[in-house]
Here is the input.
Amino acid sequence: MLKFAESLQLFRFMRRMITPLLLLLLMASCKEEPAGKDGKLTVKDIKNPNSLIEAADDLYPVMEFEEDHFDFGTLRAGEVVSHEFRFKNTGKAPLIITSASSSCGCTVPSYPREAIAPGEEGVIKVEFDSGGRRNKVKKTVNISANTNPAIQKISIEAFVKTN
Here is the structure.
């Protein structure tokens, strides 16, 4: 008999594997154009379900940053600086950012509230207040969006002098 933890783990595995497959099959059946080259789901597709999962990954937007880390260098304590992280949606679906947050109030991100169409660009501005900080400081901003994976990370760092 399976223990509860084992059955829960099995359920999560099945859900992760079957849900994208069913979603893809459902979407393929609703298309006007057939799924395969000749319009049919092939034995190869069924024997290799990873090919279907990879196809489902193409449905997500992709947030591609020019840079995902920025170093402000040396700052004086109390100095407020900002940096703009530019990105492009290189996926095939509109990109929707639902939140951007940092673990500390000294780092404040601002992000676009409207959807970013495929091929379009956007900016996430990160403001850092060095007041009350000293020495090397590194902060990470977590960006929640409809991407896969759902959380993207960007980071800043600085060395804060107190004199």
In short: The chain has two domains: 4-57, 63-161. The first strand starts at residue 63 and ends at 65. The radius of gyration is 22 Å.
